[in-house]
Design brief:
By secondary structure, this protein is an alpha+beta fold. It folds into 2 domains: about 170 residues, no CATH class; about 100 residues, Cytochrome Bc1 Complex, Chain D, domain 2 (Orthogonal Bundle). The chain contains 7 helices and 12 strands. Helix 5 crosses helix 7. It is globular and about 55 Å long. The protein starts with a helix and ends in an 8-residue tail after the last helix. About 35% of the residues are buried. It binds heme C (HEC). Heme C (HEC) binds next to helix 6. The site of heme C has 20 residues, from helix 6.
Length: about 290
Amino acid sequence: MAHLVPALLLLVAASAPPAPADGIAVWRRPVAGAKAAPVIVAWSSLKLEERTSVDVQLGGERSFRGVSLKTILGAAAQRTPAEDTALLHFKNGMQVPVPLDDAMLARLDLFVARAVKDSTGKLAERFDNVVHERSPWMEQRAITFGTNKLVAKDPFHPALGATTTKFTPWAHVDTLTGIELVNGAAWRRTLRISEDPRVLQGLGAFEQRCQFCHGVRGAGASFGWDFVKPIPVHTWRDAESLLYHVKFRKLTGAEQGLLMPPQPDATIDEVRALWDWMKAVSANELRPYLP
Ligand code: HEC
């Protein structure tokens, strides 16, 4: 598999502008061939506040110093009304969409921490690694942080719908590196490569369960593998094996240091549809982004 690595790195590099060290890059998704023109919101231009909050990754309540996502978006100030969705880009390749209406931003109440108070009450500009369900005899890969940490107080995300799963993207995100502004409907249409109801059901499952970590054809998240390039997933896993992988991932994941969380409530019907969508998207180019 070693020969695949350069191709994967290229895909990652193409998906977002480089992450600046001294701020957060904010850019508008370019239309057809144009280049993204990121504006850097410098940390030094933001007034940091202190906040005591629960953090879904750490479990308990901590005191942080940082800035709310809303403040960063306000400072970027280039958003048009059609840009109703922010795609949050993370250091590990995750990409999480956030609808930008006031009620949703208030409900999510996302906070970008630059420092956290340690047990002695001192603010430290570093964040401890997070390890989910460490097995006592094996070392598991940890989530590590750079110059900030996204703090979500609630597992809620609007794309999860009414699923009973305990899965939430917020448990897996690390350091916010960029914010991409899109028109949500136009952005979602790029993946709608067929009107077949089965394929559409599969796209729905992808949006609910996979999009935060996986992309297709170099578009979208790049924490886990691309579902199409270089080798389409549907060619090496049938729907049953894919279901097993999604439901029970963690059982072998710990030994291998793998980071994909299991989603035990996934059903065969959903995953069959997801497989149909993966196959369709392997046979068809994505649709252009037309806001
Ligand atoms: C929180 C992030 C995350 C989510 C959500 C996620 N994955 Fe993954 N996935 C990963 C990572 C990371 C890998 C790479 C291997 C590893 O570390 O586990 C991976 C690997 C894979 C692989 C390749 C490995 C193999 O054994 O075939 C497939 C296929 C896959 N995921 C399918 C899915 C599907 C389908 C969904 C949605 C139903 C999904 N993943 C949701 C993170 C995620």
